[in-house]
Amino acid sequence: MHSFLSFFRYATLLTVFTCHAASAKGPHEFYAHVGVSTFSAGDRSENGLYTQAGYNYFFSPFLALDINYSDANSFNKDLSPSDPAFTSQARGFGVGAKLMHDVGRIILQAKAGISYLKITHDYWDNSQLAFVETKDNHISPYAEIGIGVLSPWTKNLIVNINYQYQVASDEIDISSISLSGQYFF
């Protein structure tokens, strides 16, 4: 058993250090997303602005820890009793895993994890004949896929198009399409 643990430790360290030495990118990455989100609540939906900023630490060229902050807000701010629209806001921190694969200058990636979100949801309730505001905190799963290209000027910059889906609460799902930049060092 002792020899297996020694071998496992040695193999793990060798893999981590060899992968970073062979990789053109460094183990650290900062990124920012800007895009459009769609809040879905039952049969209703509302569009909004989506932003996310994060940090990735790569254990190998293809596997990283993802830590992020995201913010999604509805464009619609004016509610009226005759309009079935709603407004929503979801802000929070997330942690997950990121898989990344280089195919020449094309970069394929996928992320999954959980977020702690603060959610505000405003809508007109016909049964109460009043505007209702709900505020809630949720731990929610998220998943994202993206495709990008290495910058022609530096191999430390990647530009991506991403799609993210998040179950924000029991009532609201958020899907987002964004453009992002990733910087490695």
UniProtKB/TrEMBL annotation:
InterPro entries: Beta-barrel_OMP, OMP/PagP_B-barrel. It holds the Pfam family OMP_b-brl. Residues 1-21 form the signal peptide. Transmembrane segments: none annotated. Residues 11-183 form the Outer membrane protein beta-barrel domain. Keywords: Signal. This is Porin family protein. It comes from Vibrio agarilyticus.
